[in-house]
Amino acid sequence: MDILSTLFQQQSRKIGMIIPSVVVSEKHSDTLEITEHPVEVGAAIADHAYKKPSEVVMEVGFAGGGSLLDFADTSAIGLSLGLSPQETYQELLNLQASRIPFDVITGKRLYSNMLIRAMEVTTDKTTENVLSAVLTLREVLISQTQQISVADKTDMKDGVSTSAVLNTGTKTTKPPNNSLLKSFSGNVASFLGLG
């Protein structure tokens, strides 16, 4: 890769509006929870399995902001290359505390409605002047409800015992068991002395 493409390359990974300097690793996790009890033959399998929220664990690093010049401290007058590790850490803590879902762009996919579930920050002799963190981000499953207007219970004949109209999904009819019906009608006829 030449120097110009390195200088002008867009950062492809984002955590909300925060762009890490380096992403060491990403671990994606998508899980389907499947019930343990038996499923009847012909039953919809979707009724016995549901998708859990997606999760991604990112090991990231943020370069420490500093002076624009090597021979003079320009950060003291407000001119620096970026945020300090402490300021970046505080931004991540603020993002976590806000509890407002955000998008996460990784090398493999785009996640929507994510929150920072856990954040681990390591400081040792090699990371004293940078921010090294492991972020566990989890999807928030968002549902939408709707309001249905029904007749007032006072306008119904049996208003107290009448429930609202509910959408209970598609129903499949089952043909009657003819052998059982013939057996029952034969027993009734013989009981009445007709057969």
Helix/strand layout:
Elements: H1 3-8, E1 14-15, E2 22-29, E3 32-34, E4 49-51, E5 55-62, H2 85-98, E6 102-105, E7 110-122, E8 131-139, H3 178-191
Antiparallel strand pairs: 1-6, 2-5, 3-4, 5-8, 6-7, 7-8
Short descriptors:
alpha+beta, Elongation Factor Tu (Ef-tu), domain 3, 6-stranded antiparallel sheet, 3 helices, 8 strands, 17% helix, elongated
Q: Strand sequence of the main sheet, in spatial order?
A: 1-6-7-8-5-2
Fill in the CATH topology of one domain: Elongation Factor Tu (Ef-tu), domain 3
Total of DSSP H or I helical runs spanning 4+ residues: 3
> Which regions contain 5 or more consecutive residues with pLDDT less than 50?
1-10, 67-71
Question: What is the strand tally?
Answer: 8
End-to-end Cα distance: 96 Å
Class from helix and strand fractions? alpha+beta
| Shape type | elongated
Main sheet characteristics? 6 strands, antiparallel
CATH class label of one domain = Mainly Beta
CATH architecture of one domain: Beta Barrel
**What is the N-to-C order of secondary-structure elements (H for helix, E for strand)?**
HEEEEEHEEEH
Average pLDDT figure: 79
Helix proportion range? 10-25%
What Rg is obtained from the alpha carbons, in whole angstroms?
31 Å
Q: What percentage of the residues does DSSP assign to strands (E)?
A: 25-35%
